Amino acid sequence: MHLIPTVLCGGAGSRLWPVSREHNPKPFIRLDDGQSLIQKAFLRGALLNQVSDILTVTNREFFFRVEDDYAELDEKADHIQKHFILEPFGRNTAPAIAAASLYAVEKISADAILLVLAADHLVLDQAAFEKAVLAATKLAEQDRIVTFGITPKTPETGYGYIEFKNEDVLRFVEKPDYVTAKSYVDSGNFLWNSGIFCFKASKMLEEMGQYCPEILNETKKAIESAGFSEGFNLKKVDIHPQDFETVPSDSIDYSIMEKTKSASVIACDIGWSDIGCWRSLGDLIQTDELNNRISGEALLKDTKNCTILAKDRVIGAVGLDSLIIVDTADALLVVDKKATQDVKSIFNILKTQNNDVHKLHRTANRPWGTYTVLEEAKGFKIKRIEVKPGGRLSLQMHAHRSEHWVVVSGVAKIINGDQEIILNVNESTYIPATHKHRLENIGTDMLILIEVQTGTYLGEDDIIRFDDVYGRAVL
Question: For 2-273, which CATH class?
């Protein structure tokens, strides 16, 4: 047996807006202990006995974020060989699991057992989790496809349910209404569907060949033609967009779990939460004497049962009850605790309006570092740009904007049209619209510069790339 924790990292986390954004989804949210949800998922697998490989399936655009988050854990998990499958866009969980199973059998071990973990869930009881994994792997060795069922404590309407008897799955049930959910909990015959799975990779491929052959066959073609690279402690498969377009989108629940005759369930109590809304995330914060949960700095008067998250500013709250307040640099959310599932509607409205607040924070992460929008108005935008040592922006051009760069810390190597120049602190360059340009940090410290953009259009999509060391799309 070769157990391979497999982390699935995708989705927008729209119910956790404004902290979660399309380009900064839920797995990268940091909790009060400083760890992101995807770091916790990685450690959850790395701390299991005899685990030497962890496979992550994620969007190509998130690879550098995942890699950076994992790198912070190297002291705790330096024995782990990291494997990545990079998707050009999401196709739901069935193709992701098909790709992981194909890769595991071909590249790691023919007798691989995959332990599928969501990158954005939380498990608080590692010892109970390890016990459940041990039970699940024993069933997986008997060619069972095992799901982890969470013993329900309350009639939650935001979760799917599993009806079970002993270790047999009788049926899967979609998210029920409150009355139905209460009857499920009262019966003792139902578990919450956690989205954690354990199975032989070869068995999953066999079941997919029977129940969703098109997903399997198209994913296999995409994997076979994908690019493969490896470095120290890292192996990576990069799927080409044109090959992935033909793969049907479907969930593993619909395509396999509701059809297979090999489904088993392990009932467990592992401190699991899918962190599906602000109420569940807020519940991780300790309460004060009036049942308020505060992260950041807040001044309260006659306020109870509230959750307030504010990292950058002081929040004042007077005479409030049962509200959630989430403050970020460019967006503020105020929601009744009973309506936290509806935050997604705000996210969708912003997306429909093409408002970048659904997509980006003022500080955006890039493979080479970060940029922060300091000020923006009609005709101009001011950014602070930080480039990591060795970081290198793409060779690019903008059609509608010019840029002024002023170095405030570090040493920059810059291509500006036909020129290649070195800029030190307090030196600058002007880049007219339509000029090819590139920025590189050739020093050993962080390169920091101020960028002033001027032009008729300042959107982030006004960019044509001619060359990029991070594998992003080029002309």
Answer: alpha beta
